[in-house]
């Protein structure tokens, strides 16, 4: 609204001035409004006071209409919007003021109420609220913030003010409720006392919540720090391991290069030696051919003198003492060094094969069969998690921290070969998992496993409870010595050897092994155990590796 229009409104009725008067203190009011505040109704009895600044005025005060201010109000009314616009504005204001509470004591011009008197059961404008403060007879009335439903602050049965608080029912009551009503003989206190007590309790609760919130914020900061540290550590490990593999590849490449150089050198040496032997043989053949040619030429000479002269000149009178042609010794071409090289490579392969393939090479992540899950278990959408779904059960109803029936089977079963999987348990205080033959007929036992894990001769499992680890089979339990708390449990089923082994999957250290003699298909089984007071709600999660 225009600030100029605000200066032309009466503080009491919140409407434009009607016969405005100006008090000595400078504040303006409608003539009827200020008389209603003073309760004079046209008389001249004192005391008079200003509702705005609360100063007392002279008893002989004469109220005169401020013509200048009245002219301004008339000019504003003349320049206001057309009738259609006023109608639109009036409708808008009517919609806005539909929820406005008006003073019950203002008759001619309704004023906006700012207080509610529970004693009078009436809404009061600013002027009449001040009247309750000034008049001695009205000061004892209970005046509260304005409300459109005063009865909500009173007793609905006795229509009396709610001045007391019943400590047994913990609700506000009136005096009659304690004397003759439903709260008779109940312990009650004053509202102020109950207000102070519960306010102190709420303040203590707020402090406790603030402390908890600070602790949660510190925990979040620690988690964020661990998250950042984990990412950095993973990156550091990835870099170091990649560097180690690079060095291994350098060593292997160097060893391969050396072996290839040995083979190349051996090949060069042997081929050069064979070429030399071939050259020597070829030279002997050439010499023989030369002697044969000269001998053939001499044999064609028929003149005895010239024959003797030529044979003597060539020193061919005596028979030739030729060295015999040596046979090729194939042993000299034996590839012993190449076989040695191959043997060294085989030795290296055998040494490496002792560590390969890694157990993780057999890693799988069996999907959980929701049809075999106990009704109180929840299976995640990707069928990789199982957790307790229902509220905690009292210890009297469930004295054991686990129930071997609260399990779920994997969809996949094993009959042969090697199979390895890991289950993330993190900080779960109770869990149970292993292998079992599973239900013989799933249709006969829907939504429930008919196998009791670890308590018959066709199931093998590890149970963790309260920091202790037990190997369970055929009702037998063996306490295991585990140095560090397991966060991931690895299970290796080597059905070819008839072995079932459990590992700390992080350190890859063996926890326990079972000898499995069973011809039936075996199912991985997980039991997250029941929740105890919200402490065992964490899921069991299948660990899996994403495809690159």
Automatic annotation (TrEMBL):
Pfam families: PRY, SPRY, zf-B_box, zf-C3HC4_4. The keyword Coiled coil applies. Residues 199-226 form a coiled coil. InterPro entries: B30.2/SPRY, B30.2/SPRY_sf, Butyrophylin_SPRY, ConA-like_dom_sf, E3_ubiq-ligase_TRIM/RNF, PRY, SPRY_dom, Znf_B-box. GO terms for cellular component: cytoplasm. GO terms for molecular function: zinc ion binding. It comes from the Eukaryota. CDD domains: Bbox2. Residues 10-54 form the RING-type domain. Residues 155-191 form the B box-type domain. Residues 346-548 form the B30.2/SPRY domain. Keywords: Coiled coil, Immunity, Innate immunity, Metal-binding, Zinc, Zinc-finger. GO terms for biological process: innate immune response. This is E3 ubiquitin-protein ligase TRIM41-like. It comes from Gymnodraco acuticeps. The lineage of its organism: Eukaryota, Metazoa, Chordata, Craniata, Vertebrata.
